[in-house]
Design a protein that fits this description.
By secondary structure, the protein is of the alpha/beta class. About 40% of the residues lie in helices and about 20% in strands. It has helices at about 20-30, 50-55, 80-85, 95-110, 130-140, 150-155, 175-185, 190-195, 215-225, 240-250, 270-275, 290-295, 310-315, 330-340, 345-355, 360-374; strands at about 5-15, 30-35, 60-65, 65-70, 70-75, 90-95, 110-115, 145, 165, 200-205, 230-235, 260, 280, 300-305, 320-325. The longest helix has 14 residues, at about 345-355.
């Protein structure tokens, strides 16, 4: 691990998003680092116990004073916090007002500033004013930390020099997830019986909204149903389209094979990955898609939408899964029926899933993060 113990670092981040904190813990341990959070609460996940989450980590942190308009955090005091801590390097997050305040500090005091981002071309607003603002920021920053190769492409499209963009994959504790799934695997048959699942199980984890493409998965399953009658789809999550999708299943005669299990806490998920055979991620636009790593860590091959930011980095065609266009439901039907009717191929992909995840540890992501700031 690259160590920069004397490097004074400030990371500006919107909120204590749990998946980022192990990475920050390592980076701050290898530098003289501190995290400035714009908010101690998550707008998208108000149920999180942030104090309990933060207590698990060693890094120093501070909450930036400011105010909120709607979903937008405005923290003008970030400039004064930076003056107080006087970092050599500032890593800010995405293209917002906090980044502008950090940029002013960096230029006035001749400090290095980097933007970490998970934006991609298919998840970013493309109207000219937003793009011009992002291009303006990109041309004035010293470097970039991208969550995926797809994000690196987008940053380069905005004008970043490729050799100044470092890819630090957004990831999880893959060994912990793998071990958790293995514990539950011995109870697989019992778990399936309790949920009323059939022999082979297709898993979906995510919110039930149109942008997640769940309707394309159900349509493809319906199209191949004659070949898939001994399989089930297990759906973990809820959302605005749940009743609509249940009605679709009922109208098309596949409802006995579809189990809507509702929302589950993150620590419950390995159980559901362990009892499944195949994971499908049919999103119409995700900056990354952390569930892909979760599935692979638990030994599940993944059929992944080409609109997932993580697809290029995580999926190896024919080794641990396949990439598809969710709009092409005929192709998805073929993939589902081919994999679930060929036990030898499915087992090969399961082995490939477990092996492929070894390259996506938190330690490896931290190493690339540290390379960016050195």
């Amino acid at each position: 691990m690259l160590s920069l113990k004397k490097k004074k670092l400030v990371i500006i981040h919107p909120s204590p998003y749990p998946v980022k904190l192990p990475l920050f813990d390592i980076v701050c341990a290898e530098t003289d680092g501190i995290i400035l959070f714009s908010s101690k609460y998550s707008v998208d996940h108000p149920e999180w116990n942030i104090n309990q989450i933060l207590s698990q980590f060693r890094f120093r942190y501070k909450l930036i004073l400011g105010f909120r308009i709607g979903r937008i955090d405005i923290r003008p005091f970030v400039f004064f916090y930076l003056m107080y801590y006087n970092p050599e390097v500032v890593v800010t997050t995405e293209f917002n007002l906090q980044t502008v305040f950090a940029l002013i500090y960096a230029k006035l005091f001749h400090r290095k500033i980097l933007i970490q981002s998970n934006a991609t071309s298919f998840t970013s607003l493309t109207f000219s004013k937003r793009r011009r603002f992002r291009e303006w920021l990109v041309h004035r920053c010293d470097g970039f930390i991208a969550n995926s190769s797809e994000t690196k492409k987008y940053l380069c499209d905005l004008g970043a020099e490729p050799d100044k963009v470092f890819v630090s994959i957004q990831t999880i504790d893959v060994l912990k997830w793998k071990q958790s799934a293995e514990i539950w695997r011995d109870s697989r048959d019992e778990l399936k019986n309790n949920l009323g699942l059939k022999d082979k199980v297709i898993l979906y984890v995510g919110i039930l909204e149109q942008k997640k493409g769940i309707h394309f998965l159900l349509e493809a399953y319906h199209n191949a149903f004659e070949k898939l009658k001994n399989t089930s789809i297990l759906i973990i999550g809820g959302g605005s389209e749940e009743s609509q999708q249940k009605e679709y299943c009922k109208q098309n005669g596949i409802h006995d094979n579809i189990v809507f299990a509702g929302y589950k806490q993150p620590d419950e998920l390995p159980k559901y990955y362990a009892l499944s055979d195949l994971f499908v991620f049919p999103t119409l636009g995700d900056t990354f898609g952390l569930v892909i790593i979760e599935a692979l860590a638990c030994g599940l091959p993944v059929i992944c939408s080409s609109y997932a930011g993580a697809a290029e980095d995580l999926i190896r065609e024919g080794i641990n899964g396949y990439i598809f266009d969710p709009h092409d439901t005929k192709n998805l039907s073929v993939l589902l029926s081919t994999l679930l009717m060929d036990d030898k191929l499915l087992q090969k992909l399961k082995s490939g899933a477990s092996e492929s995840i070894e390259n996506f540890t938190i330690e490896k992501s931290a190493e690339n993060f540290l390379k960016a700031i050195r």
